[in-house]
Every structure is written in C-alpha cells, then in structure tokens.
Amino acid sequence: MLVKNPKFEISAVSPKQYPNSNLPEIVLAGKSNVGKSTFVNTLINRKGLARTSSEPGKTRQINFYNMDDKFYFVDLPGYGYSKMSKQEQGKVGKFIEEYLFSRKKISLTVLLIDIRHQPGENDKLMFNYLKSTGLPFIVIANKADKIAVTKVNSYLEDIKKELKDTSVPIFAFSSQRRIYTEAIWTELEKYI
C-alpha cells in the first residue's frame, strides 16, 4: 500500500482524547525498544513520522498516526520497561487496558516481538490477553535483519512453539532488508 500523506494526529491517555472518527485502527503492542516506531516508518517509507528513541520506555501515551484518512496506526506505550516507577507502570497499564477494552474501532492488533529472543513473560501475557479478547491479531517477529535469512523460518517456528499456538499468523520483519513489507501490507489491508 502506498501511503502518501501520513500524519501524527494526537497523543492520548483517556477516551475523551481519542480521535473522533470512524476509521479502523491497527494497534501496535510490544515491549519497549522492540521497534514499533521503526516498523511504522518503514511500512510507510518515512524516516521520522513515528518518533524513535534511543531511550526505551519513552512513549508513555497512546499515539495515533493518521494514514491518508484511511486508517490509524495506534502505537501503545511499550511494556516491561524496568526504569519506569511501579506507579507510572500502573498508570500506563490502566489507560492501555482501558483503550484495548473500550475502543470499538480496533480492527487489528499487531504484537511485535524480537525474533532473536524467545518471547518473554510480558510477551506471553500480552499474547494470551489478545487471544482472550477474541479480536483479530497477528505477531510480527521484528529485527529479522539481525539473523541470517536462511534461519528466519526456523526462528519463527521456535516462536510458535514457545507461544503454544499455531493459529495466530506470525510474520518476520526487517526495517533494513524490507523484503517482508509486501506480505505484511497484504495482511494489514484485510483489516482496513
């Protein structure tokens, strides 16, 4: 898909701040520093729309990115960041859960994990939570450029075994190689 005029629309922490529109929302979830912003920037072929940070845990609000008035990418704060105080973690967790539970415009959730590592406890918790909602979601195994192309499929199989579920689609992704973007767009377009 060619996105011509993407724009950052708003950062929100409560329903009254969410965009008032009927556009479908593709939600991005994942631990801090898994590359959600880079994923968005790579898919839409822009360098700086979604702000990336060298400091994990920087995003503490829900960021809405409008894609040509066709749909939103919604970037949730990353989970599992230890330098955030327990109080902050609780506050952020509460408004993430409120968004996921109450927002009716969510068409798909994308759970990003690092292909190089087995899914951690927080990844498994999010995976199982998303499964429990009954809403559609997929898994993106990011940072595939960090391993040999010939090993990508075996890493994906290991992730499926660790998550104990083969019914949820899992895709490899690499912001550097860009060889996976077409397959991911094909999947995302089913929900737009």
Structure notes:
The protein is of the alpha/beta class and 192 residues long. The chain has helices at 36-43, 86-102, 121-133, 152-163, 181-188, and strands at 6-12, 25-30, 62-67, 71-75, 106-114, 137-142, 170-172. The protein has a seven-stranded mixed beta sheet, with helices on both faces. The radius of gyration is 16 Å and the shape is globular. The mean pLDDT is 90.
Structure summarized in a few sentences:
30% of the residues lie in helices and 22% in strands.
Q: Number of helix segments?
A: 5
Count of extended strands = 7
Structural class based on helices, strands and sheet pairing: alpha/beta
CATH architecture: 3-Layer(aba) Sandwich
The CA-CA distance between the termini, in Å, is 11 Å
**Any idea how many domains?**
1
- Mean pLDDT over the full residue set: 90
Features:
single chain; 192 residues; alpha/beta; Rossmann fold; seven-stranded mixed β-sheet; 5 helices
Fold blueprint:
Elements: E1 6-12, E2 25-30, H1 36-43, E3 62-67, E4 71-75, H2 86-102, E5 106-114, H3 121-133, E6 137-142, H4 152-163, E7 170-172, H5 181-188
Parallel strand pairs: 2-4, 2-5, 5-6, 6-7
Antiparallel strand pairs: 1-3, 3-4
